[in-house]
Design a protein that fits this description.
The chain has 556 residues and is of the alpha/beta class. It folds into 3 domains: 31-144, no CATH class; 165-231 and 340-527, Rossmann fold; 238-334. The chain has helices spanning 47-53, 59-62, 137-144, 169-174, 187-201, 241-248, 253-272, 275-280, 293-305, 314-328, 333-336, 345-352, 372-392, 408-411, 422-437, 470-479, 485-488, 530-533, 540-552, and strands at 31-35, 40-45, 70-75, 78-89, 96-108, 115-120, 131-134, 151-157, 164-168, 177-180, 207-211, 224-227, 362-366, 401-406, 439-445, 461-464, 498-503, 510-514. Mean pLDDT is 82; it is low at 1-26. This is DUF87 domain-containing protein. It comes from Sphingomonas suaedae. Residues 152-386 form the Helicase HerA central domain.
């Protein structure tokens, strides 16, 4: 039955005998294009045609014409694929008007009309009046099928049960990635799933994960090297001067600069006492040369003795007092122990960066036991070591490193929350320059709007789970490419363990249901079942006694 195209009307169902349609191509259109724009266009859909398809056995065809579904249009010898972003009812005609975003195009097989060789981008646009057809599961297989590039499979393409969603590892890691999602959406399990798949693909890889809550050690017991304050053994002398100041300099304002100048001079003198210093001639304060904390305090004491007045000695006393306080505090032993003065730099880098990996390509660095005052310094040192290693190893056989940062908004905060710490600067630098040197950054956060401006936009692949906060949604929308906007509108409606993946790591924007992860590979991040746990009783005295002992010993 043919209707007039004027006033947004179109062919509803055209018999195959009437149309120049190849055998096997869809014979039932669901509408026609009414307006064309650069990335976004409009189509008028027939409610009766959509309703008639809703009982189809093919879930892709059954969902045709709904928000988030895909449609296709024939342009010459190609099929153009578009995503339905939004629907509204036209009051005058009673027809459904759809906003569609073009995703890419594929060739049309001459005999069957089937889609093949799908690629991102559009070379030729349709004209108004072009018929719109539903996309079938067979089409989706062609659209989302992984090509020959190295990839990992992390779930199924929504709404299908058997089309696998692939992430292209080189494109994803080469231009950084971000995993976003509100608390309770399955973000930690999704991160563990992606990292497990990467480790399976590259058992000799080099992955460093900063774990602020101690969740991921449970997930990587078999294929990861696990570090916390008990075995990290991170030498304090690996800190650069900026990080030294964050730990040792307590003053503010003009006094801070005075203290920093004194500290720089004294650290340089302490480093020059090491026999390694003789090999390099003129040393800088930034050079990672071992020195003794006792030498540093002794030099500060000697320098203070040269002062004429007691007021001149105040900066020296502040520095000496802070250093002695840290030396005496058992919580700082993992970093400021007298045992860490020998030259263990090669051993430390080898352990943390998995060089070689021995089949355990990922280091999980649990910083939950690190005193909160220096957590950001510890993360800064680890992140900077990754970057500095990449810079100074140029000319050697390349060993790219992936640095994954959980709770990234803590360490790379936006200007509103900025605290001027060194960790924000180094992670921002890695985001901007890391790929030149073979350093990839993976950011995991539940508050993307609290991330530094520009860092999220440096991530070439964005994997977004449900975000409940309007500000977060707007922030992610601004960082996404134009053609993915339709997918973004569904972010608040995603179920747990579902995500939208866009960017370099996927062939085209896609909604994915993540695979279930085996129990022994999941992070320890499950929510407590209050109704269940509050039924348990008995043994409270012993629980309190053990807890208070650990509390007073500060975990030691």
């Amino acid at each position: 039955m043919t209707e007039d195209m004027g006033g947004h009307r179109f062919d509803r169902i055209r018999p195959a005998s009437e149309a120049a349609v190849p055998v096997g191509a869809p014979t039932q259109g669901i509408g026609s294009v009414s307006a064309i724009g650069g990335a976004s266009s409009e189509a008028v859909l027939d409610r009766a045609a959509i309703a008639s398809l809703s009982t189809s056995a093919d879930p892709a065809i059954a969902g045709a014409g709904t928000v988030g579904s895909q449609v296709k249009l024939r342009v010459g010898s190609s099929w153009l694929i578009a995503n339905v972003r939004a629907l509204r009812l036209d009051d005058r005609s009673g027809q459904v008007v759809a906003q569609i975003d073009f995703l890419g195009e594929g060739d049309e097989e001459k005999l069957t009309g089937k889609l093949y060789s799908f690629r991102r981008g559009v070379t030729r646009y349709p004209v108004p009046g072009t018929a719109v057809f539903p996309v079938s599961t067979a089409d989706l297989k062609q659209i989302y099928a992984a090509d020959d590039r190295a990839h990992i499979e992390v779930g199924n393409v929504y709404p299908t049960k058997d089309i696998r969603a692939a992430l292209y590892v080189d494109a994803m890691l080469g231009k950084h990635f971000a995993l976003l999602g509100s608390t309770g959406t399955g973000k930690s399990t999704a991160a563990a799933l992606i990292l497990h798949r990467i480790c399976e693909l590259a058992p000799q890889g080099h992955v460093v994960m900063i774990d602020p809550h101690g969740e991921y050690s449970a997930a990587f017991k078999t294929n990861g090297a696990l570090y916390d304050v008990s075995n990290l053994a991170m030498p304090y002398w690996l800190m650069n001067f900026e990080e030294h100041c964050e730990v040792f300099v307590t003053s503010e304002g003009s006094d801070r600069q005075v203290d920093a100048d004194i500290l720089a001079r004294c650290i340089l003198m302490a480093k020059q006492k090491n026999r390694l210093a003789a090999e390099f001639g003129k040393l800088t304060v930034e050079a990672p040369i071992p020195y003794l904390l006792s030498d540093l305090t002794q030099i500060i004491q000697l320098e203070m003795g040269k002062m004429d007045k007691a007021t001149d000695a105040a900066p020296y006393l502040r520095l000496k007092g802070k250093i002695e306080e840290i030396k005496a505090d058992p919580r700082y032993t993992f970093m400021f122990s007298g045992m860490l003065v020998s030259d263990t730099m090669a051993n430390f880098i080898s352990r943390i960066f998995r060089l070689p990996g021995d089949g355990k390509p990922i280091s999980i660095i649990d910083v939950s036991g690190v005193p909160s005052e220096i957590t950001s310094v510890v993360v800064a040192v680890l992140s900077r070591m990754v970057f500095d290693y990449a810079i100074w190893s140029r000319g050697e056989a390349p060993r790219p490193i992936l640095l994954v940062c959980e709770e990234a908004h803590r360490y790379v905060p936006n200007e509103r929350n900025a605290d001027g710490s060194s960790v924000g600067r180094i992670l921002s630098r890695i985001a901007k320059e890391g790929r030149k040197y073979g350093v990839s950054l993976g950011l995991i956060t539940q508050r993307p709007s609290d991330l530094a401006e520009g860092v999220l936009s440096q991530c070439g692949t964005i994997i977004s789970m449900r975000l409940n906060n309007d500000r977060d949604q707007a922030f992610v929308r601004a960082a996404m490419p134009e053609g993915a906007r339709g997918f973004l509108d569904s972010i608040p409606a995603l179920r747990n363990r579902e995500c939208i993946m866009v960017g370099e790591g996927v062939a085209t924007p896609v909604r994915v249901a993540f695979d279930a992860l085996e129990e022994n590979k999941r992070p320890a991040s499950g929510d407590p079942l209050f109704s269940e746990l509050w039924r348990h009783m008995g043994g409270e005295d012993q629980i309190l006694e053990r807890t208070i002992r650990r509390w007073r010993a500060q975990g030691r």
